[in-house]
Amino acid sequence: MYIQQLPIEILREIFTQLLLQHTNSNSCHFIPEKNGLYPNNAATRYFRYGESGSCVCWQLDLLSVSMVCKSWYVISLELLESRPIVKMHQGQTPSWLPLMNHASFQRNYPFRSKLIKILKESYLANLVFHQQVRHLVIDFASFDTIRREKTKNNMIVKKKVHHPKALKDMIELFRLCSQVERLDIICDAGFTSLLSHGNGGNHSDLSYDTNNSILSTSLTLQKALLPYNNIRRLDFVGFNPIQRCPCCAGKSWDKYLSPIIHCLTHLDTIVLQSVLPSPQVFETLSKNTNIKNIVFYKSMITVPLQKKNATSATSATSSTRRLSTSIHQIPSRLWHQVTSVEIYEDIEDAVTWQSKRYLKELVSQVGPQLEAFTLQFGSKEENERSLFSTLRTRHDEESHNSTDIKDPNSPLHELKLKATSLKYLKLVNVPEI
């Protein structure tokens, strides 16, 4: 009997057994134990989205066997869509998509190579899988790492190691997945080490600048993005925000992201997650007239005081620059085209957050074209849920919000007066200002 002619009941049983192999087993054949997916040599190799503890890479098996023939493809789609979607990724369907951007403890992406093979088949056969990828993550730590090595004199030196396979996979994803709408860039203060250390590996591409891996990688990705990208949302995501101030995450290196940013011509939304990019990044972004939405997630901060030595011969003492904020980092040109601003902060910070100062400065910068404003102090889950939903969908669903501002001296009252186009105002757990 040909495999295509197997009864539907038998096919369903085959797929059910594939699921049970993962559900009832402590092992995962896609991730070997020595991979170090979790810190401290954790015994489990499950991907714990929430507290379910269930292995989600069963979907790789289903995606693989779906390529056997048309009937298998139909059954696999049915099963993939019927499985519950993980809470953390409510904005992403179907449920196999989180595997694409799931990073190991070493910050590589263990599933991408396997998924790329499946996406290639989908692309060649004009199936649906490669068209379902709408979100990708760039982490420069997956392309280049700094390795500590001991010399003959027992001295510890740092060497840069390039991982060309990871970069090649990223380029291939951009080529195959032309429907990607959201791009995340991980921002890590440690990336400054990728600007100066010498070569620790062999590079087949002679144009690869070993003295500035960030710029070289950005230029390479720019070539991959130009013909295909339809990206509308760019997220800057701070790495390890508990130990790093948002203004430090991109310090000294994020200006080399300009080749990537320049080619995102369809971009309309910027999201800052626990990171405040450098003025050079905002200057590059301000040249894109399509940007209409800015979202701050734990990124509205006061920039630490900076001192600079006076250059004038008439001044013998050092001059001090006044305190700056996230708002002043963004050029006026960009503020005057933005129609939506969203700010999300932890509920625990509602009392200590410098509401009056930030809002007064915001009012001084935004133009009358502002149509929507959100200020929310919520739990981590509530804030992340808001981030994963699209701005346009939220505003359409909740439509006009007639929040009354009773205090005429409140900066929110000034905002309503200045933003003559304001149609949507949402305040959640905001103390009286």
What would your notes on this structure say?
- With 433 residues, the chain is of the alpha/beta class.
- Helix content is 31%, strand content 15%.
- The strands form four sheets. Strands 1-4-5-6-7-12-13-14 form an eight-stranded parallel β-sheet, with helices on one face. Strands 2-3 form a two-stranded antiparallel ribbon. Strands 8-11 form a two-stranded antiparallel ribbon.
- α7 (258-262) links the parallel β5 and β6.
- α1 crosses α3, α2 (58-65) runs antiparallel to α3 (70-82) and α4 (112-125) runs parallel beside α5 (164-176).
- The chain starts with 7 loop residues before the first helix and ends in a 5-residue tail after the last strand.
Provide the descriptors you would attach to this structure in a database record.
alpha/beta; globular; 433 residues; 8-stranded parallel β-sheet; two-stranded antiparallel sheet
Major sheet attributes = 8 strands, parallel
Radius of gyration based on Cα positions: 24 Å
Mean pLDDT: 79
Strand order of the largest sheet: 1-4-5-6-7-12-13-14
Count of distinct strands: 14
- Number of helices, where a helix is a run of at least 4 consecutive DSSP H or I residues: 14
User: Percent helix among the residues?
Assistant: 25-40%
Instruction: List the secondary-structure elements in sequence, H or E.
Output: HHHHEEEHEHEHEHEEEEEHHEHEHHHE
Low-confidence stretches: 33-53, 84-92, 197-208, 307-320
How far do the termini sit from each other? 75 Å
Broad structural category: alpha/beta
User: Based on CA inertia axes, which overall geometry fits?
Assistant: globular
Share of β-strand residues: 15-25%
